[in-house]
Amino acid sequence: MAAISAGVLLLLGCSAGAWTGDESAPAPTVGADATTTAKAIELLKSGTKFIDRASFRVDVDIASQVTTLAHTDNVNKRADATISASGRGIEIRMIGTEIFMKTDLDLPGVGHEWMNLDPARVPSDFALSFAPGKNDPGGSARLINAIVTARADGYDVAGTIDLTRVGRGNGINFRPGPDGFPDAARSNPFRATLDADGRLVSFLIPAANGMPSASLRYSDFGAAVDVARPHGAVAAPDALYPQLGLGG
Predict the structure, then answer these.
(1) Which terminus has fewer CB within 10 Å in the chain: N or C?
(2) What pTM does this model have?
(3) pLDDT tens-digit series, residues 33-77
(4) In angstroms, rounded to a whole number, what is the distance separating the alpha carbons of residues 126 and 170?
(5) CB of 107 within 8 A of CB of 243?
(6) What's the pLDDT score for residue 15?
(7) Could you tell me which residue, 8 or 140, shows the higher pLDDT?
(8) What's the whole-number mean pLDDT along residues 208-223?
(9) pLDDT at position 187, please?
(10) Residue 19 in this model has a pLDDT that exceeds 90
């Protein structure tokens, strides 16, 4: 089930394995040909252009077990995030090229004080950067790129997504269970919503086909993101860097 640990740590990442409980929902039948799907996908991609243009808030929830709350301003190069699971987790602050982190997880060789990370040593797949297209703690691009079928109806888009193609990165991640992904995970239902300004405000994946529920929400567009540089931060120890990223 969803969990956060030394192997499922950072960077703004949450991970969920195959669901073994009874909660499920039938996949909807979405009649969408290639053209209809392509138009819906372009609508969703257009709905994420705000990421490099305005500040925003991100809320990620996986099966009510792992949550992320982040505020990002890529224009002014400020961001913060808190990732929690079972009352424990990590905090991240970004100011320009500086990355600070604090965790109450018991990581070998790592303390619980604020640490200043070397960006060059952060794993490339999870590099925290304000470069265009590189800092979306919601990871919406990976979700959109995994869509199989979709149909838009006004501000709403519904369809199916291949969870095995979501991959790893910031935001929602899925990893296979002991027996791999259920076959039906390649056609899992999803629904997304745009606001009146065409911005993506939610991407919801209900529990279905042996996989847990997951949700991504964007809000607070244009709100100020004030991030304080933590006092007394120490250089991150060598032991930290191999533990960053998503493990099994």
Answers:
(1) C
(2) 0.87
(3) 899 999 999 999 999 999 999 999 999 999 888 899 999 999 999
(4) 7
(5) yes
(6) 52
(7) 140
(8) 93
(9) 93
(10) no
Phi–psi pair at 46, nearest 5 degrees: -60, -30
- SS3 readout for the chain: CCCCECCECCCCEEEECCCCCCCCCCCCCCCCCHHHHHHHHHHHHHCCHHHHCCCEEEEEEECCCEEEEEEEECCCCEEEEEEEECCEEEEEEEECCEEEEEECCCCCCCCCCCEEECHHHCCHHHCCCCCCCCCCCCCHHHHHHCEEEEEEECCEEEEEECHHHCCCCCEEEECCECCECCHHHHHEEEEEEECCCCCEEEEEECCECCECCEEEEEECCCCCCCCCCCCCCEECCCCCHHHCCECC
Distance CA 158, CA 171 (A): 20
Structure tokens at 202: 């939610």
The pLDDT value recorded for residue 132 is 85
Mean pLDDT of 187-195: 97
Separation of alpha carbons 105 and 61, rounded Å: 19
Q: Which two tokens stand for residue 58?
A: 């991100």
Its sign, for the CA torsion 33, 38, 43, 44, is positive
